[in-house]
Each structure stands twice: as structure tokens, then as C-alpha cells.
Amino acid sequence: MEENYESQRSRLEKPLELSRERARKQVLDLFKHTKTCGLALELCLLVRTHRATLEKQDVHDCCNFVSKLCEEAGCQEASKLCAEAAEAVVGNEKTYLKLCEQSLKKCSESRQPRKRSPERATYVS
Q1: Distance (Å, rounded) from C-alpha 118 to C-alpha 125?
Q2: How remote is the C-alpha of 69 from its chain's centroid?
Q3: What are 1-42's pLDDT values in tens digits?
Q4: Residue 119: CB atoms within 10 Å
Q5: pTM
Q6: How far apart, in whole angstroms, are the C-alpha atoms of residue 87 and residue 59?
Q7: Are 99 and 84 in contact (CB under 8 A)?
């Protein structure tokens, strides 16, 4: 009798464990995205917004840091553009702004899509 109870309990825990594992993966993926892409985007916008108050070397250093975050997230193209913008800021602000804009566009294109809640049937009386 006890073996039967244990086997039933084991069968009930497996689907729960699979759901928990799936939820864990989603949370960790979101954490990684926020740690890299979310932070990179926020820092980039902060630097762009306040670039008039920052020294060119400050902007250069910040853009290089953002570039490394993009690379860590696997966004090679955005990382490359950001690194090029970091180098351009020292010489030509127009080139810097153009490269930075292109990098932001790439970043926006690669944003992690949010899961939509399942469509629910609408009750009509």
C-alpha cells in the first residue's frame, strides 16, 4: 500500500517540477536580459541625455562599458556600433551621435519579447 502511495506522489510531483523548472528558466533569462540589455540601454540613454555635462573621456568610458554589456548579451552588432561611437566621441560628435543612434536601433530590435498572456475567449451573453 505504501509503495503505491509513493509512486502516486512521485507522478504528481514530476509535472510540478517541470513547471517549476520552466518558470526558473524564464526568470533566469529575464534576469540575464535585465542585467545586460536593460542596464546597457538605461546607461546609454543616461549618457546621451547628459552628454553636455560629461567630459568626452567620460562618454568614451561609458560607451565602452555599454559595448561590453551588449557583447555579453550576445548583441555583437550593437556592441560594435557602440564601441565605434566611443571612439568617435573624441573626434566628431556628429559621427558619435549617428553611431549611437544606430546602436540604439539595433538594441531595440533585439529586445527580448515579452510573453503575452494566452488569449481568452470573451464571454458574450
Answers
A1: 22
A2: 9
A3: 555 666 665 665 666 677 888 899 999 999 998 999 899 999
A4: 6
A5: 0.71
A6: 10
A7: yes
